[in-house]
Specification:
The chain is of the alpha+beta class. About 40% of the residues lie in helices and about 30% in strands. The chain has a four-stranded antiparallel β-sheet with strand order 2-3-1-4, covered by helices on one side. Helix 1 (about 20-30) packs antiparallel against helix 2. The longest helix is centred in the middle third of the chain and has 17 residues, at about 50-65. The radius of gyration is 15 Å and the shape is globular. The model has no long low-confidence stretch (mean pLDDT about 95).
């Protein structure tokens, strides 16, 4: 099943700057071959359910390996069965309505 998620992974107990941890997670997602779109407070990810959630698990593993004793993660999940949906298609649908 195809899924689109919005992932916000926050390491706790590592100081103020989180960008090294975010970058490490982004590398995991890229290595998994998933379609991703980094934004200011998370990453949109598109792919097959099992592959996406395996990559999220790997992000947790990598960030813990970097020394984060705790991680809190927020995930929003969307699936459809009536048609194939993409991240770009969702954005385009709203942008088209703004032109009206």
């Amino acid at each position: 099943m195809k899924v689109i998620i919005d992932l916000c992974l926050v390491p706790i107990g590592v100081g103020i700057s989180l960008s090294p941890y975010v970058a490490a997670c982004e590398k995991v997602l890229m290595a998994a071959g998933l379609k991703i779109s980094l934004h200011s407070y998370g990453t949109d990810i598109e792919g097959e359910w099992d592959e996406v959630f395996a990559a999220v698990k790997r992000c947790h593993e990598v960030v813990h390996e970097m020394g984060a004793p705790r991680i809190t993660t927020t995930i929003k999940v969307g699936t459809r069965t009536d048609r194939l949906e993409t991240m770009e298609g969702k954005v385009k649908s709203v942008q088209d309505k703004l032109l009206c």
